[in-house]
Give the backbone structure.
Amino acid sequence: MTGSFPGVRLGVDVGQVRVGVARSDPHGVLATPLVTLARDLTAEPDAVPADMAGLAGLVAEHEAVEVVVGLPVNLAGQHGPAARNVKAYADRLADVIAPVPVTLTDERMSTVVASRRLAERGVRGKRQRAVVDQAAAVEILQSWLDAQRRRTQ
């Protein structure tokens, strides 16, 4: 069991174009790919973007107790423009799905690792682009789950 309470967690990889989503089992052991949502960059400032509405629907459907968003810290450990964009996204998402908490976690290499693992399995080109966001979300959530488990052992 992870964190201080059991339940499904959603892992989110926020990209410029797509949002990859993974989910954990209720015991917090294994992350699996769920879906890729297209980023809605055309929503009015006071409207909920379609991708966030989709995430809110997934939170409800899977009765998620927490959403873990990967924060792209650069290799020097700095928060560049990408990290600031993700932080703003996570803040907005937290408002949309409240009272379900949104947690940020370092995801420096998730997309690189996900791409490499997919390539090792022979998934390349267009097929890889279609699932790499979900695979990155799995990497983000799995490393967070593993860290939580190490803390409680």
User: Anything to note?
Assistant: Residues 125-152 form the longest helix (28 residues).
